[in-house]
């Protein structure tokens, strides 16, 4: 499929007109000619078109490579921030973000968005500053290049952070955002981070469990487990089984709960998560007494 055909396919898929797609980038006539394969699109225009449609520029090539990594220093810094969040080292992440916000190398809107997003995470985790965190997340989302019809992979990740913070601040307040994220993800044609779907399913299911909607949580857990098995992805596999077992336990379906907690324990053993193995084993011991 040619680049022009792929642009037309995405545009029609998201119900975006040529006029909306071209606004501020090029002329509508230019888009029309590209889609009819009458004109070769320039690299800079393809970059802006890909941002507006919520996909990386790699989507348009048969042998995709990530052309957006940029400068080595930027790549290393962004990776350090990601690792810091995974390891819950929010103090280090906060220091890096505050420093790099003044660095001209991070002046692109994409890098600004990344820094604002992770500053918001730190504001909430370190200071429980809900208002500041939500302000920063809203500001980061305003830097998006997509249309209102679709979200990019990163925007879904930012919205996921927003839902988690909303839910931690007030139980039930993030459920609407989770539902929107799941719907938008189902419309996403391509993504690079195969852990993102698992994060969406797990956090949504966890919020539903905390709100007492056990049947809906079970449904979301099973969707997540189906995705994990299909893509052979172990990320949050044990956590999804654990949530499933917790819901079954709350519904007094003890046989099912025991099997699901055992599946969770198997997954945690496989991934070496010792603390979660202990917690799950305690649940199994409790069920043995029932």
Which regions contain 5 or more consecutive residues with pLDDT less than 50?
64-70
Alpha-carbon distance between the two ends: 59 Å
**How big is the Rg?**
21 Å
Shape field:
globular
Assigned CATH superfamily of the domain at 3-60? lambda repressor-like DNA-binding domains
The H-and-E topology, N to C, reads as HHHHHHHHHHHHHHH
Main sheet: strands, sense, barrel: none
Structural class by helix and strand composition: mainly alpha
CATH architecture descriptor of the domain at 3-60: Orthogonal Bundle
CATH class division of the domain at 3-60: Mainly Alpha
Total strands:
0
Helicity range of the residues? 55-70%
Tell me, rounded to a whole number, the average pLDDT. 91
CATH names the topology of the domain at 3-60 as 434 Repressor (Amino-terminal Domain)
The number of distinct helices, counting runs of at least 4 residues, comes to 15
Strand percent estimate: under 5%
